[in-house]
Design brief:
By secondary structure, the chain is α+β, with helices and mostly antiparallel strands. A five-stranded mixed β-sheet has the order 1-3-2-4-5, sandwiched between helices. The longest helix has 48 residues. The chain is elongated, with a radius of gyration of 26 Å. This is DsbA family protein. Keywords: Disulfide bond, Membrane, Oxidoreductase, Redox-active center, Signal, Transmembrane, Transmembrane helix.
Amino acid sequence: MAKSSSRKSKKGNERMFLIMLPIAIIVLLGIIFVLNRQGEKIKTDEMVNKPAVEFNLEGQPTLGSKDAKVSVVEFGDYKCPACKIWTEEVYPKLKADFVDTGKVSFTFVNKLVIPKSELAAEAAEEVFRQNPESFWTYHHELYTSQQNEQKDWVTVPFLVDLAKRVVPEVDLGQLEKALNDRTMQGKVAGDEEMAHKAGVSGTPTVFVNGKEFTGEWDNYSQLKEFIETALNEAK
């Protein structure tokens, strides 16, 4: 009888364990979800409460309404793979939701992080100097045409040929001369100085009304929430 009772007790414990295990897993997942949400809120609060950086964006490539109450500034490098992803996946959503609706202005600033990327920045600056409306076409095509960051693909012939294909209205002779003479080197250096003063060390780095977005760089929902907070504050 003792052995039979022992077996029944063991089976009962096993059944109880099988019943409680899914409940414990559900509770654990719930705790993890709550902690993640709390962590995201803390991170958002930290971003919102950080002191704002004052940018002088005069003469910088900018899209959107001049009357927009919120300014978004992206620091990027044309050889940076993450910047390519950001430009192709995050930027279109940002543009559709905020720039095209007149709520936000968007500015691009160079920040060199990948070796031998400076000529691409200088080419884009020369295109902007010649024809500001052509800048964004050339800017996006540089990312579309991006090659492996280890390759030395940013060359004068490549950059001039790219302009010939996508912005034929630009004076190609002037572009080639500017690249060979490095005439836009000072302009890119000015962008670098702006990035240094803002504490930018990597790309893409995004600021919203001078406050750095420190969430996940490719998480648009986090960036959107951050922008919406800035819009509410600006009312």
